[in-house]
Design a protein that fits this description.
single chain; about 130 residues; alpha/beta; Rossmann fold; two-stranded antiparallel sheet; globular
Length: about 130
Amino acid sequence: MSETSAALRGRRILVVEDEAMVAMWIADVLASAGASVVGPVGSVRDALALARSETLDCAVLDYSLPDGTTATVADLLAARAVPFVFATAYYPGEIDPRYSKQPRVEKAFEVEELLEAVVSTFSPAARGG
């Protein structure tokens, strides 16, 4: 078992992405690496509902969705101490300043970039420890 698979095995990861093909690809990449995918969902409303109701270990968030940005989802995840990664075409300076230093992968990212970013959120340093 690879280190990535070991790190992701059984982790519940919320996927928030409004482009169906990209959402399915992200979900497949995470599931293939051993994660349990929650979603994917393509709206802020649906993302907030899952972020409130599900037990999550991490989330992968597109920043801009048809019904707004995922800053409110990030707020809820941060309040619940759930780490997250932005998977977006937005530059750090375009993201809500509170989250501009959050791990992010820039579209179009590679499988390894996504997995590395997600796994990095589980490190003690990423969690402030």
